[in-house]
Automatic annotation (TrEMBL), chains A, B:
Pfam families: SRF-TF. InterPro entries: MEF2-like_N, TF_MADSbox, TF_MADSbox_sf. This is Agamous-like mads-box protein agl62-like. Its main location: nucleus. It comes from Trifolium pratense (Red clover).
Amino acid sequence: MDNMLQQKKKTTGRRKIEIKKLDKETNKQVTFSKRRQGLFKKASELCVLCDVHAAIIVFSPADKLYSFGQPNTDAILNSYINGTTEFTDAKSMEDSSTYAEYNGQYEESLKMLEMEKKKLAEVENLAKTWNRGDWWNDSIDDMSINQLEQFMISLYELRKKLFERADGLSMMFPF
Amino acid sequence: MDNMLQQKKKTTGRRKIEIKKLDKETNKQVTFSKRRQGLFKKASELCVLCDVHAAIIVFSPADKLYSFGQPNTDAILNSYINGTTEFTDAKSMEDSSTYAEYNGQYEESLKMLEMEKKKLAEVENLAKTWNRGDWWNDSIDDMSINQLEQFMISLYELRKKLFERADGLSMMFPF
DNA sequence: GCGGCTATGTATAAAGT
DNA sequence: TACTTTATACATAGCCG
């Protein structure tokens, strides 16, 4: 009954969106602005809560540069470059190439994940159309997708950690 | 009245926290892990949605390096450095003890290896579970199968590479 | 394009296993 | 010790001025 007394909703509220390139240029600009702000805020919170250093560099759709740095961007980049340079110089080419190979691994994982999500969604729609029965609803749900996501993230983290540790060990134990 | 029939709440749910340095070391580590993951995901979404490039560098509480880069970290940093000529030479800055941390201590490395062994075992179990789980067999299609195969291959190659790089330690990995 | 407003989607602090 | 669950805090898509 109360429902009937409720006012007409003033807005549609936030709507779910697919994570894919936005076509509308104006929309893209707005989203970039909002999300960049959110990203920097998150980074700031991470730095404060965990007492760590971090830096972010972002180029806007119009190629304008935005950066975040705690304590400051250049200091973090110096650390990164120092470390990377040292890492590369310290050992043989195999090591550095291996390490470089894992730059962008995260993005690859995410792409694979997105592909798999789409497939799951497709199959799910197909199944719903067929309306075969309850087995489907019991078997495919967000949890499956989340598990897949966890798996991909775990795989990525695992590989990264293993290689980092393997490098460290190989330096200590020259075999 | 319905309230009286409701179960006692199982958890307190998320609670509001103040954004200030976390004191409990364990809590700090957990929060760092979660929020770093979230931060990277947000960055990834921003890059996809707005079709832009970005890079993030974070040092963990234990001074471990984590980086995100679209298309890759180094490219973004180069752009940044070239764009802002005010970047001091890395080598002239204070010594980078950053990557010295990667070598770590012997005991520390062994602990890490133990953790990774467990994690790998878990991932394998998860994959096996998926492979024989009913939901998978019932809802499978060729593309999904291929995708799973890709995961398995990735896992296999990971192990293979690990063997190649740390063959002396193979006795520590029972697979 | 910029900021404010909802309503809703998403991240995550704590508790549980 | 780490992973999962749950309830809640927080971020943000679509609108409007």
